[in-house]
Amino acid sequence: MNFTPLRTSVFVVIALVVGLLGGVLGVSFFRGHISDAPLLADGAQVWTCSMHPQVRLPKPGKCPICSMPLIPAKPGAKSTGTNAAATTASESMLELSDHARAMASVATAVVERRALTHEIRAVGKVQYNETTLAVINSRVDGYIERLYVDFTGVDVQAGDHLVDLYSPDLLVAQQELLIALENRAGTNLIESARLKLLRWGLTPAQVDDLVQRRKTSERVTLFSPIRGTVVEKMAVQKGMVKAGEMLYRLANLDSVWLYLDLYESELGRVQYGQPVDLATEAHPGRVFSGRIWFINPVLTEESRTVKVLVNIANTDHALKPGMFGSAVIRVPLLADGRAAPTGIAGQFTCPMHPLVLQPQPGKCKLCGMALTQIPGPTAQLKPDELNVLAVPVTAVLDSGVRTLVYVERSKGQFAPVEVKLGPRAGDFFPVLGGLSGGERVAVRGGFLLDSQFQVQGLPSLFYAQGQAAVAGHQHGGPPAPAKPAGHEGHAAPKPAEHKH
Asked: Model pTM greater than 0.90?
C-alpha cells in the first residue's frame, strides 16, 4: 500500500497549522528582533499573510488567497562572516530574546560524531534450503507390498526402511548374480551382475547377504539414502510404480532459507555476508540469526524489489517452511554514509555454493570447484572510521526538495543551513555536507522558526531565494516556489503541483 499521499496531506496540514501559529506568535515574540532592511525601494511598510508568506503587499488588507487579515512585516538580513558550514558568505539571521525563546519552546543540541547503525526492515518468508531437497525414486517397475513411511512430516534417518517392493526385474537380477556365482563365471560377469543390483536400489549389505545366503527374495526393502523430513509422499499401499516415479520428497530442516524483498533504494547498503535478525509470531521474544548469502542479480520490475536470501540455522526445527517473519538488517555506517564492510572480504567462497566460506584457498567441498577470493578491503576498520558526524532527526526540516536545519550562530541568533544527509540511522541522520562538528542546531521549534523566516520574506524551507523570489510579486498574488510560467497585473498564478 502506498502511504505517500497520506503523508503528504499530513505534512501540508502540519505546515499550515505551524504557519498560522508562527504568524500569530511572531507578532508578539519576534517583532523587533529581526534586522531591518526594507523590501520596497522606498522603504514603505510591507504587509504579508501569516499563512501565505509569499504574499507581499504595500498596504493592509486581506490575503488574496485565504482572506485572512494581513500583518505588517519588515524583512531583513544580518550579514555574517564566512563560515565553513554556511552555504553563502552572508545569510539571513533571526534573533530571539530569552523570553521569546522560552515562549516558543526552542531547544538546541550539538552536532557531534557518534557510531550510527542504519536499519533495513523487511518481511520475509521461510522456505526450504534448496540444497538439502532430495527425491527418492523407484529405479525399477514393481508393486509396493508394504509402506513403512506412510504419511508426510516423518523424520527419516539415512538407512531407515521406506517400502517393501515386489519387482520381477529385481528378482531376475538376483537370479543372474546367483547363476554367475554357481557357474564360477568370470570376475567381470559377477561384478556386472552385482553392480546391476546396486544401481537398482539395493544396498551393499543387501547384496552381500544375497551372496552369502544364495537365496533370492521376492520382496526387496528399499532404504533411505539420506536424512531428512518427508515433505511429499507419492507412494501408496499396494500401488504400482514405474521406473523413475517419485516415492518421497525429503528436505533437511536443520537449516532454512529466508527470502526478503528489498527495495532498490536499499540495495546500496546490502552486502553478502551481512548478519540478519528474524522475529516470528510463533516464537515471541526469540530472535533467529542468519546471514545474507545471495543477492538476486535480477530486479522484479513490478514491485521494484530484489530477492535476498538469508541462511538460518534451524537445528531444533522451530522455523517451519511457509512461516512469515520480520527481519532486520543492521548496517553500521562509515563517515561518508556508506555501509561498513562485513568483515568477510579476503576470505574464499565457491561461485556455485556461496554458503561455503573459508579463510584459505582450496576447492569447494560440495562440487570441487576452485574457491575464489571475496573482493573488498581486508584491513580492520579504525574506531574513528565508524564515528559519523550526526544530526538529530528532530532538527531536520525536509520538503522533499530541500533539507534544512536551523543553526544557532550565537546566543539567540538562528540561520537556515541547507544540508546533505545520508540514510536515517535511528534518531539521527549522518551529515554528508553543510554542518561541522560542535555547531548547535534547533531540535525543537524548527517549524516555528521557519514560519517566521517565511513571514519576513527571508530564505526558508519552501523558498530558497526568500526576498528575491517574491520581490517581483510584491503587488501581486503568491508565486509558486518554482519559477512561474507567467504573471500579469494582480493575478495570482496557481501554485505548482508537487508530485510525490
From this structure: no
